[in-house]
Amino acid sequence: VAHRRRSCETCFVADIAPAKQHLHDRRDVRMASLLACKRLVPCPAPRVRGAGAKAKPRARGTAVAVAQEASSDASSASTAPSDDDGFTYERFQELLDKFDFKFKAGDKVTGHVLRIDNRGAYVDIGAKSAAFVPTHEVSIGSLARIDEILREGQNREFLIVRDDDPDGQMLLSLRKMEYDVAWRRAKQMMEEDATVHGKVVNVNRGGLLVEVEHLRGFIPSSHIGVRIANREKLIGEELALKFLEVDEENTRLVFSNRRAIAERQLKSFQVGDVVEGIVQAIKPYGAFVDIGGINGLLHISQVTHDMFTSLESVLGEGDKIKVMVISYDKERGRVSLSTKKLEPTPGDMLRNPTLVFEKAEEMAASFRKRIAEAEEAAREQEARMAEELKKQE
Predict the structure, then answer these.
(1) 124 in Cβ contact with 115 (< 8 Å)
(2) Whole-structure pTM over 0.70, yes or no?
(3) Does residue 211 contact residue 198 with C-beta atoms inside 8 Å?
(4) Distance of alpha carbon 309 from alpha carbon 288, whole angstroms
(5) Are the beta carbons of 275 and 322 closer than 8 angstroms?
């Protein structure tokens, strides 16, 4: 650096040896030359040798800021007699320290898009060289062209994902910022118990892999409401989903298709309604009945009033039956069913199930009437107790 000769547009600077301890990179050499020759205008960019060679864009935020400050100092000291016209190398170092902004991974910065190529985009964030956004960090979704998101001359916010490399270049991302927004939206939608739609992207032994808001999630087999022999046929299909778990720290997202279907179906009927269903499976504790996309449980205690030895002697898989909805667990997406409430006389499900299904609506209406009368009696009793307590006070 000492005794190095450097040319500017219209002047020639030779002796900059006194500043050698302050000069650490070409940017400082350039600034020293500019200050020494009293021309606070950047020198022309160095020529790039070799055919077709392209120079990497360099941000001039620090140099411009130092030049503006130095110009202000020089103007204010123009009338004072001094060998350096009021601007010293010590002052120059202070300005470099002042305007040499510190950046670190995780910071959000506003940048100006300088240039775009097939590798990514170069962005001026005020550092000593342009930061870089690789193509795969431009968006959380798939892109055909980078200019679908970014354009030259655009100003927008970026996230620093890597500090300076040896060349002083930082790595920026828009994709990581979009991921953060997607996780916040997922948490908010779970709190609101919102129904979302996700696309099935893969199948495994445990269930289905889906994509919601560009995030990968999982549907356990027990929460798949669609009955299909070959689940691979669901790939590419969209399913209604409810959130079961949102864990950003462990990148875990779990959904229930069954709960979403149950919520939609239960809007069309209420507790006490009679619905038709098909027996899907028989277990030791009861039978699972498909009632229009919902798997309801007909517990063994709700089949009939009489005793019986095995459920298989009463029902079989594929049987079409009528059942009454007696309860619904919204959180777990479970529906409890009964045929016992539909029996005209105790034990009819064992002796004459056809009669039970023929009289189902009639028995259900009678059941709802009894429930309404019981609720009315309970309200009247509560009102009488409240009145008695008021008198005692």
Answers:
(1) no
(2) no
(3) yes
(4) 19
(5) yes
> Running DSSP on this structure, what letter comes out for residue 128?
S
Q: Which residues contact 150 (CB under 8 A, 6 or more apart)?
A: 113, 116, 121, 133, 138, 156, 174
**Burial environment of residue 334 by CB neighbours within 10 A (0 to 12, 13 to 18, 19 or more):** middle
Query: Which amino acid does the sequence have at 298?
Result: L
pLDDT confidence tier of residue 4, bands split at 50, 70 and 90: very low
Which stretches of 144-292 are assigned E, i.e. beta strand?
A: 155-162, 171-173, 195-204, 207-212, 215-220, 238-247, 252-256, 274-283, 286-290
CA distances for 68 relative to 11, 37, 63, 76, 98, angstroms: 20, 15, 9, 13, 13
For the ranges 81-95, 223-237, 309-323, 330-344, which has the lowest average pLDDT? 81-95
Residue 340 · residue 305 · CB < 8 Å:
yes
Strands (E), 284-366: 286-290, 295-299, 320-329, 334-338
Q: What's residue 246's pLDDT?
A: 92
pLDDT-based confidence at 116, cuts 50/70/90? Answer: confident
Query: Which spans in 157-268 are helix H?
Result: 175-191, 257-266
Nearest C-alpha neighbor of 156 from the set 178, 123, 116, 127: 123
Under 8 Å CB-to-CB from 312, ≥6 apart: which residues? 282
Phi, psi of 77 (to 5 degrees): -105, 15
- Does pLDDT of 65 surpass 80? no
pLDDT in tens, 186-236: 999 999 888 999 999 999 989 999 998 888 999 999 888 887 888 889 999
Instruction: Provide the β-strand partners of residue 18.
Output: none
267 or 159: which leads in pLDDT: 159
